[in-house]
Hints:
With 222 residues, this protein is mostly helical. The protein contains eleven helices and no strands.
Amino acid sequence: MIEINHLFYAMSGYILGSIPTGLIFGKIVLKKDISKIGSKTIGASNIFHLSNFKFGSILFFIDSFGKGFLPLLLIFIFVNSSNFFEYASVFTLFVLMGHNWSVFMKFNGGRGQSLIMGSLLILSIPLSILMCITLLIFWVISKEGGVSWIITLLVLMITSLSSITIIDKELIIPITMYLMITIIKRIMGNNSIRKSRVKNKISTKKILFYRLFLDRDILEKP
Length: 222
């Protein structure tokens, strides 16, 4: 049953997630509108690509700590432990949706990788460790962040479904939703498929394939 608390955490999560930290960071630090250059996303990955490791790491910390770790830590401290996973799941899912479809950016946005990482540090240390190991392994193998991340989320979902004796079973829903929201965001992109098809002169099937696995519209990195 939906309670007033659910609505509170959903609304506050969406508003927090919608704050375009990457866009603000890019304009202040890089003097650039990162929503129009590079991958055209407003997350840390685009900052890494457009500047350097230092600035990318700073934005990663801002998003993972400010939108993921810290809010859930506060919920953990002030909410009854029996309701923590319920409210934390609602909050973090709406933070992710706000980050990906920001009301302040005409419902465009980033991908939410950093805030998912920050959230998992509170929700599950074992899953956080598994996430880092899996992400590192597949990045070393593929050198593709998009492929590595989608595989990592899939591994986390399978683990949460099959290891309920180790991983709290209440994490099954948020982990699964992380994957589904990521897939939906990638498929939708920040540009229409029609425009991308005309611009890049490739088929819709290829665009969808590249978006799903590479998180971009073309095979080559921009």
